Input
Amino acid sequence: MRFFYASLIIFLSLSCEQSKTPPTLPEPADSNYFIRGLDLSFTTEMLQHGVRYKDGSVVKNLLELAREKGMDYFSTTLLVSPYQDHGLLKQIGNEVSLQTGVAFYYEDYRAGFYNARKIAKEKGIYRQKYCGCLYSESEQCKKPS
Output
């Protein structure tokens, strides 16, 4: 069984939507692969800003690529966050799954959120205070330091 954390680089997604070019999944060795935390970034914040990736071709195209690569499931790292609307994430994941034929794997990982933060802090691992989408990033930049 092959598992795919559905990858959506927001910058790539927006530029692909504007140019009508399907996105391609970068190789893991590419440093840009990790820039945005690679996720199906259908966060509550984005939905509040009117961004609806669940209906957009970007997510569908990316999951088509996952299917072509033989992935059985996709999921999102947002499932660890207590700040996300899990009901909405699950609903969107299931809708995208129906559209693409790649099964959505849901598990509530929120119980490990604070322990993971504690371990990351102890080990000096970088932790950002926003989801990584352009919308939350711009909101973060507006906050006084």
Remarks:
- The first helix runs from residue 10 to 19.
- The first strand starts at residue 3 and ends at 5.
- Residues 3-140 form one domain.
- The chain has one domain: 3-140.
